[in-house]
């Protein structure tokens, strides 16, 4: 029987204990315990909330190269049937952050004992899925003291095969904004709708109307998406709902388009208040910057792939995916790339099952790449 790759094994152990944003207590403990097992003579370790920063001192440093992994999970009930499925009911690493962490640990393990010329900074960042950990960790004293000169990151991609890496200069991921809308009207008896203001009706109509923003207010050659992922309203089947709630997300390829969407949403809300005799309010959520890959750094990485892994490189287009890694790239040159994991099910799906062969492959690619720098 072939022995399981140690970093695939770590991935499976992490998959057992998924935790959502800023609740990654077990995850942090697991990571710190493993990091403590590595040679410590060149390591400096700092905690930030439920995250961790680890600096590997270079042999004769002239710069610091940053590598970020996210560590949180999603509030999803796992349906994979795997032997190492989540032990935390209703929580799952359905976005591949367990894979991301194991790859980062593979890199850290190598460079803890075989340091390169320059400093390396490993950022184990919480709360990527929400409310967003990148911006606050960048603003922390811990990160500011070890500010890197470039920043790298990856995200698994079920649509690409294991052994493939997809990347492009410039825009890779969209701007994203969480959307939480509340409707407050007047409840009443189901048999007397004329004496009430039904918020299930108001909210349902709003869902359809907001899609006209995309079809009639956004340039057809531009791209934007409004998705409502959750509708809540009412408590009993024979009572007209006094309150209703819409939770969703907005994705755009530019900040200007995001501004247009939000302006039109608020204008529609004012009209809804008049038409349905209700109050419409927006609850602030997380906003994520677009992931805009630095051209020079990305082209250098592409050249490295073409020379060393010619069958692995895939040119790709931008996606409407959201990632708070964009906050790093707003201030620090660098890039993010897609790592193929060849899964039948998409990101955020309860049956997502990445091809674990991608883990040692990514460790090999990035180890050699960092050494080449």
Secondary structure: elements and pairs:
Blueprint: H1 6-15, H2 25-36, E1 43-48, E2 51-56, E3 64-70, H3 97-113, E4 119-125, H4 134-138, H5 141-145, E5 150-157, E6 165-167, E7 170-173, E8 175-184, E9 188-189, H6 199-216, E10 224-233, E11 239-240, E12 243-252, H7 255-276, E13 279-283, E14 287-288, E15 291-293, H8 295-308, E16 313-315, H9 326-331, E17 334-340, H10 358-372
Function: Catalyzes the conversion of N-acetyl-diaminopimelate to diaminopimelate and acetate.
Domain Peptidase M20 dimerisation: 181-270
Pfam families: M20_dimer, Peptidase_M20
Describe the structure in your own words.
This protein is α+β, with helices and mostly antiparallel strands and 373 residues long. The chain folds into 2 domains: 6-171 and 290-372, Aminopeptidase; 175-287, Alpha-Beta Plaits, CATH 3.30.70. It is built from 10 helices and 17 strands. The protein has helices at 6-15, 25-36, 97-113, 134-138, 141-145, 199-216, 255-276, 295-308, 326-331, 358-372, and strands spanning 43-48, 51-56, 64-70, 119-125, 150-157, 165-167, 170-173, 175-184, 188-189, 224-233, 239-240, 243-252, 279-283, 287-288, 291-293, 313-315, 334-340. The mean pLDDT is 97. Residues 181-270 form the Peptidase M20 dimerisation domain. It comes from Listeria weihenstephanensis. Its EC number is 3.5.1.47. GO terms for molecular function: metal ion binding; N-acetyldiaminopimelate deacetylase activity.
């Amino acid at each position: 029987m072939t022995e399981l790759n140690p970093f695939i094994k770590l991935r499976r152990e992490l998959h057992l204990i998924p935790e959502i944003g800023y609740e990654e207590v077990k995850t942090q403990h697991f990571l710190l315990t493993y990091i403590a097992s590595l040679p410590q003579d060149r390591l400096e370790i700092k905690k930030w909330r439920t995250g961790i920063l680890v600096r590997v001192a270079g042999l004769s440093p002239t710069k610091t190269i940053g590598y970020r992994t996210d560590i949180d999970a999603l509030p999803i009930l796992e349906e994979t049937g795997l032997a190492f499925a989540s032990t935390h009911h209703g929580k799952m690493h359905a976005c591949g952050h367990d894979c991301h962490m194991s790859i980062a640990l593979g890199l850290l393990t190598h460079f803890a004992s075989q340091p390169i010329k320059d400093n390396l900074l490993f950022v184990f960042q919480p709360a990527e899925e929400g409310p967003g950990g990148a911006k606050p960790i960048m603003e922390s004293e811990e990160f500011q003291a070890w500010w890197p000169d470039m920043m790298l990151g990856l995200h698994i991609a079920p649509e690409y095969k294991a052994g493939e890496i997809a990347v492009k200069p410039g825009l890779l991921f969209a701007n994203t904004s969480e959307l939480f809308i509340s409707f407050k009207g007047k409840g009443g008896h189901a048999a007397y709708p004329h004496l009430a203001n039904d918020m299930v009706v108001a909210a349902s109509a709003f869902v359809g109307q907001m899609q006209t923003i995309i079809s009639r207010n956004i340039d057809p050659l531009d791209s934007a998406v409004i998705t409502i992922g959750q509708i809540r309203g009412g408590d009993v089947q024979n009572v007209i709902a006094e309150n209703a709630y819409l939770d969703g997300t907005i994705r755009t390829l530019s900040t200007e388009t995001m501004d247009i969407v939000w302006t039109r949403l608020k204008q529609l809300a004012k009209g809804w208040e008049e038409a349905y005799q209700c109050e419409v309010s927006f609850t602030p959520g997380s906003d994520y910057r677009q992931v805009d890959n630095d051209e020079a750094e990305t082209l250098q990485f592409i050249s490295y792939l073409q020379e060393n892994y010619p069958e692995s490189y895939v040119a790709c287009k931008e996606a409407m995916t959201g990632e708070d890694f964009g906050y790093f790239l707003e201030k620090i040159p660098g890039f993010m790339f897609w790592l193929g994991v060849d899964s039948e099910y998409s990101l955020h799906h309860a049956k997502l099952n990445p091809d674990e062969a991608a883990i040692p492959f990514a460790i090999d690619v990035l180890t050699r790449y960092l050494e080449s720098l």
